[in-house]
Amino acid sequence: MIMPVRLREKPLVVTLPCKMKSLKKARATVRKYLTRHGLEEEAPDVELAMQEALKNIIQHACPADEKMSFTITPFDDRLIIEVLDKGHGFDVGIVKSEPHDPMALRGRGIQIMKGLMDDVEISSGMDGTVVRMEKTRGSKNEARGQSKQDMLSS
Amino acid sequence: MHLEVEEKEGFNIVSVVGELDVYTVPLFRKVLLKIEGDRKHDIVLDLSKMTFIDSSGIGSLIETYQKVTSSEGSIVFVVENPRILKILKMVNLDSVFNIFSNLGKAFQFVGVSSGYIDEDFFSDKIERR
Lengths: 154, 129
What we know:
The complex is a heterodimer of chains A (154) and B (129). Chain A has five helices and five strands, in the order βααββααββα. Chain A is an alpha+beta fold. Chain B has one domain (2-123): STAS domain (Transcription Regulator spoIIAA, 2-Layer Sandwich). Chain B contains five helices and six strands, in the order ββαββαβαβαα. At the A-B interface, α2, α4 and α5 of A face α2 and α3 of B.
């Protein structure tokens, strides 16, 4: 198995209060970090996926320590993004089987994360939830994104 | 985010300028509810100056669509930003909303005379002999 090569950049590690006002700060921090490392192309998708993951924590997880964290680790061909909380967790099976009614007013965050990222895994238990997302870097990602778009418009 | 509202031939042209997300949805809802309260049901929702939307913003667009259509009004959307269009397609709203790539096309569809003629809009309907 070939492991991706990690770049020289240090991973971004951020812990924030579990409050709505933290979302703006999270997005600005993500944008600054990715831009500084020449990853402007990936920044808008990562910003939105991150906002959705953090918003889910604020609205549903209620962590006892009132904190939430995220990390971004750049590899040569992809970004690994992890969003964590120490809340009460939830039944991941419900999310996986959730139908996507286009007219539902809520419950679209995970659908957006999956649409923007190349891979999304959610593990949840009594001691918290980890959302792990992968985003392919550069042109390979654009090509994959385009094929997704083609599918959507067909 | 701020909203620009203009009335034209019975339609409210509502332009969203900036980000429509969990922070700004309350203002958006307040303005749209006021328009609803005034019984001015037909809306052109211009999202061409929108720079960011999240799931809360999407929920507010759906809520507006449902309110307008349930009171037998018309609503069309203008989306120029490819990123915003990508997000709306991702959640399958392109199959529900009437989305146009510019304001002129939206006006022509709803029958508002804006003084703008988009020849491309009619081009595929011209029969050449």
